[in-house]
Design a protein that fits this description.
Elements: E1 2-4, E2 12-19, E3 22-29, E4 33-39, E5 43-49, E6 51-56, E7 59-64, E8 68-71, E9 77-80, E10 86-93, H1 99-104, E11 111-114, H2 117-129, H3 137-160, H4 165-177, H5 184-191, H6 195-206, H7 210-223, H8 233-239, H9 245-256, H10 260-267
Parallel strand pairs: 1-4
Antiparallel strand pairs: 2-3, 3-10, 4-9, 5-8, 5-10, 6-7, 6-9, 8-11
Length: 269
């Protein structure tokens, strides 16, 4: 089985650089089939465009744009790419990158398919930050990635509790309906909980208020279409459930520190 050295991936590399012991690359996957292999260092793969099938000892992941995977260095896997362009953003962690903090979080075993909207949003921010190679970009990427690990740690603590079924039901409901006009009464009725109890318990399991969680889902949904220049900001905001363009811009800027237009211009430059 082949081991890939640090910073090495199959495909055509668009960009590649080292930032404070983080090996960052943006690649187009060109091979339809990649046999079993593993990497020298643990790393994240964030699918920016297209689709990818990945198999590991844990099973098969069907990945599409916006999906996020974490691989450990001893995690063997293989890939299959369907027709069309598939693009991935990789962040590889060298042995010197905050190793003690990472080990303390007990997150370096096996691989993970990460569904947390807060974490995926942070990877959109990391991708955005990767275009700025100035004196502060390394610090910014460091901080964002440490925040990623803190959220994964929080999620693991929550998952080790006995989680009531309504949490999973609510999570799936919000992910399916975030672009609709939601209110607490309707949501509470859907999962058969009292509105007061739901409001009190939501942040315990989701880490944020329900309003903030829904706004993050909307923004996450809006980020990927910004790579398509033919779609207007008004259209993207409407499809993501924002009442108007000003609301879309305000929510986007509160999470990214930039407007949707600024984000689009930078990543499409």
């Amino acid at each position: 089985m082949e081991q890939l050295s640090a910073g090495t991936y199959y495909g055509a590399i668009n960009r590649k650089f080292n930032s404070n012991e983080l090996l960052v690359s943006d690649a187009i996957y060109t091979l339809e089939k990649v046999d079993w292999h593993y990497h020298e260092n643990p790393y994240f793969t964030f699918i920016l465009e297209g689709n990818l099938l990945e198999g590991s000892k844990k099973g098969i992941h069907h990945c599409s744009a916006g999906d996020l995977l974490f691989h450990n260095w001893q995690d063997p896997h293989y890939n299959r790419k369907p027709d069309g362009c598939t693009r991935g953003f990789h962040i590889e962690l060298s042995p010197h990158w905050h190793w003690n903090e990472m080990a303390a979080l007990h997150l370096l075993e096996g691989n993970m398919d990460i569904h947390l909207p807060e974490v995926r949003l942070l990877f959109h921010k990391l991708f955005w930050e990767s275009f700025d190679q100035d004196n502060s970009s390394g610090l910014a990427m460091d901080s964002l990635l440490l925040h990623v690990f803190s959220l994964l740690h929080r999620d693991r603590i929550v998952s080790e509790r006995k989680i009531p079924q309504w949490v999973y039901t609510l999570r799936d409901y919000l992910r399916a309906n975030f672009s609709s006009e939601l209110n607490l009464t309707t949501i509470s009725h859907t999962i058969d909980l009292h509105p007061v109890y739901l409001s009190r318990e939501f942040s315990r399991y989701f880490g944020v208020t329900m309003g903030d969680y829904i706004r993050k889902l909307k923004v996450e949904n809006a980020v990927l279409p910004l790579r398509e220049p033919t779609l207007s900001l008004t259209e993207i905001g409407y499809q993501s459930g924002f009442a108007d363009q000003s609301h879309f811009i305000r929510c986007f800027k509160s999470l990214f520190g930039s407007t949707p237009g600024e984000y689009r211009n930078k990543i499409n430059a």
